[in-house]
Amino acid sequence: APTPGPTPRPTPAPTPAPRPTPRPLVPINPTPTPSPQQQCSANSQDCRSNRCCSDPRYTCYQKDAWWAGCLQSCTPGIHSDEATQYQTPWSCAVLGKAPLPTPAPMPSPPQQQCTAQYQDCRSSQCCSDPGLTCFRKDTNYATCQFSCTPGIHSDEPPQFQTPWSCQVLGAAPSPMPSPPQKQCTAQYQDCRISQCCSDPGYTCYLKDNNYGTCLQTCTPGIHVDEPSQFRTPWSCQALGESPPQKLPQQQQCTPHHQDCRSTRCCTDVGYKCYQKDPWHAQCMQSCTPGIHMDEPPVYQTPWSCKVL
After folding, report:
1. How far are the Cα atoms of 63, 129, 142, 143, 157 from residue 117, in angstroms, in the given order?
2. Of the candidates 92, 100, 234, 307, which lies 20 to 30 Å from 287 by C-alpha distance?
3. Would you say residue 247 has pLDDT above 70?
């Protein structure tokens, strides 16, 4: 019998090609990220989380683990301008960086940026009133004054009597031209701005940083003819000059019941100029040394009755 041939091997099925892995879909319009300026803190807000300030002039300073605020500058320690219950020490560590500066707005006129009298002028470093200068008291206060003496100012309330350094901040405004005669000040009015007196024979004398008036003469120290609540020392510094015009000689004598210390003569016949004390003299028909009971009680001080 014939021998059978070898059995043929089966043909293996072809391996299918691998399917490509699909790529993740990318959103066409991704959600925009808020700009840093929109996330920064305002001056009165806590800036610990965002570590930046919306005002480009301010920096985020840390007080402690529970508070940080936007300030222009920071001095480590207690800040006395905070409310008493919040006066705990500042570390003043800088958190983050100040935001990029935005374009500066158009500057305002210089006179609108300067500080009014009795206001804090540390930031403006200039005064809106002519003749005033911005003087620094300490790191927490500066104000616009005519002059400043370093040390304690006794005319301040006791709770604010701390030393003045009197450091000048910035520069005083350019002095205004001398005011015309019609702008000079009448007697008993404040003459610090005009620095001249409308009445002949009167000079503008400075009492302190807060008051000056037109008087015929001035003696430094306490003026006993003032009401008791206003009896603080006079410096008697002369401001400016009195108007140059003079009245005719016969019109320089003083009417009765007015101060005749400078004229030493009286316009009314039968009247003489009697001195009360160094601060007052008056035209009267007669004078008795001692207390005059017809005067108001606040002015009842002895008369010397010396004839001037």
Report:
1. 32, 7, 11, 7, 18
2. 234
3. no
Cα–Cα separations (whole angstroms), residue 139 to 92, 121, 143, 166, 275 = 15, 12, 12, 11, 50
Count of CB atoms situated within 10 Å of the CB of 188: 10
Residue 29: the pLDDT is 42
For 223, other C-beta atoms within 10 Å of its C-beta total: 19
Would the CA dihedral through 147, 153, 155, 156 be positive or negative? positive
Q: How far, CA to CA in Å, does 247 sit from each of 17, 181, 250, 252?
A: 124, 15, 8, 7
pTM of the model: 0.25
- The identity of residue 269, as a single letter, is V
Q: Identify which of 293, 285, 287, 283 has the alpha carbon closest to the alpha carbon of residue 305.
A: 287
Cα–Cα distance measured from residue 232 to residue 212, given in angstroms and rounded to the nearest whole number: 12
Phi and psi (nearest 5°) for 94?
Answer: -80, 125
Give the Cα separation of 130 and 183 in Å (integer). Answer: 15
C-alpha closest to that of 79 among 61, 95, 94: 61
